[in-house]
Specification:
Blueprint: E1 14-19, E2 24-27, E3 30-32, H1 39-50, E4 54-59, E5 71-74, H2 78-88, E6 93-96, E7 103-105, E8 126-128, H3 132-137, E9 146-153, H4 157-168, E10 172-177, E11 193-194, E12 196-200, E13 203-206, E14 210-211, H5 212-227
Parallel strand pairs: 1-4, 1-6, 4-5, 6-9, 9-10
Antiparallel strand pairs: 2-3, 7-8, 10-12, 11-14, 12-13
Bound molecules: cytidine-5'-triphosphate and calcium ion (CA).
Cytidine-5'-triphosphate binds at residues 18, 78, 96, 98, 100, 102, 129, 131-133, 149-152, 164.
Length: 232
C-alpha cells in the first residue's frame, strides 16, 4: 500500500530524542538495566525526520539500526545521556522516551565483586541519577520550545503522569501503562503496540491502541501542528 506523502512541516527544526534503556555498571562484567527495547523512541526519531526535522537520537544500548537520516549518539549510562543531550542543544523539540535508570551504583567495582561467605546483602550502594527531563525542561535560553516526556507507570497512570508533568516542568507527557499483560505476550516494554494518553496543560487525551510507529506518526503530527503558528 502506498503511503501518503508526509508533509515537510518540521523542515528547519532540530529535534532531540532519547531512547532505550541505560546500563549502569556494577563492575566490569555486570550492570543494572531495564526492559526498554528503544522501539518507541526510534519510531519517534524516524517520524520527526520524515517530516523534515534534523534529528539527534541519543540512545542507550539497543539492537536497532539508526533510522535513515538521523544522527545517532550511542551512550551507556544516564550521566552519559545527560551530557550527550546537553551537547546536542540547541533544539526546538525534545522528546525524552528513554527508560533512564533511576539509580547507579555509587562506586562501581574496578574488579569483579565477590560474594563474602555469611553476608546476605549485596555489597552495593545506589545513588539517584540526574533527571534529564527535568534538567532540559528548566527555564532558560537553551530550553527547547516543546519538551515532551514519557511516564511509565504500573498504577494510577493519569494522576502520576499529570504529577510528573508539573514536577518536571515539561510541556507534554505521553503516559503509558507498563504493567505486564500476564498472558505471556510482551508488555509495552519490548512489545510492538502502545496504548497511551497525551497529558498537556489543557488536559488528557486517550489515544487508541496503536502500533509504536502509529503512536510516533501521530505524535510527530501533533508536534508539527503545535509549532506551526510560530515562525521559523
Ligand atoms: N527521565 C529522565 N531522567 C531520569 C529519569 C527519567 O529524563 N533520570 C525521564 C524519562 O525519559 C521519561 C520521564 O522522565 O521521559 C519519566 O520517566 P519515569 O521513569 O516514568 O519517571 P521517574 O521520574 O523516573 O519516576 P519513577 O520511575 O519513580 O516513577
Ligand atoms: Ca524512572
Amino acid at each position: 500500500l502506498a503511503r501518503e506523502p508526509v508533509p515537510q512541516d518540521l523542515a528547519g527544526r532540530h529535534a532531540l530524542v532519547t531512547a532505550g534503556p541505560t546500563h549502569e555498571p556494577i563492575d566490569p562484567v555486570r550492570y543494572i538495566a531495564n526492559r526498554s527495547s528503544g522501539r518507541q523512541g526510534y519510531a519517534i526519531a524516524a517520524a520527526l525526520s520524515a517530516r523534515g526535522a534534523g534529528v539527534t537520537l541519543v540512545s542507550g544500548p539497543v539492537s536497532l539500526p539508526a533510522p535513515p537520516g538521523v544522527a545517532l549518539v550511542p551512550v551507556e549510562t544516564a550521566s552519559d545521556m545527560l551530557a550527550a543531550c546537553e551537547a546536542a542543544l540547541p533544539a526546538d523539540i525534545a522528546v525524552l522516551a528513554a527508560a533512564v535508570g533511576d539509580w547507579r551504583v555509587t562506586h562501581p567495582g574496578t574488579a569483579k565483586l565477590k560474594k563474602r561467605p555469611g553476608q546476605p546483602a549485596a555489597p552495593l550502594s545506589l545513588t539517584v541519577n540526574p533527571d534529564i527531563l527535568a534538567s532540559l525542561s528548566a527555564p532558560g535560553p537553551r530550553r527547547p520550545a516543546l519538551v515532551i516526556g514519557f511516564a511509565a507507570e504500573t498504577e494510577d497512570l493519569l494522576a502520576n503522569a499529570a504529577d510528573k508533568r508539573r514536577r518536571k516542568g515539561c510541556d507534554w507527557i505521553v503516559a503509558n501503562d507498563v504493567s505486564l499483560p500476564g498472558d505471556g505476550s510482551p508488555g509495552v516494554m519490548g512489545g510492538d503496540r502502545n496504548q497511551v494518553h497525551l497529558v498537556t496543560a489543557d488536559g488528557t487525551e486517550a489515544w487508541p491502541s496503536l502500533d509504536k510507529r502509529e503512536v510516533a506518526d501521530r505524535l510527530a503530527a501533533r508536534i508539527a501542528a503545535h509549532l506551526a503558528p510560530h515562525s521559523l
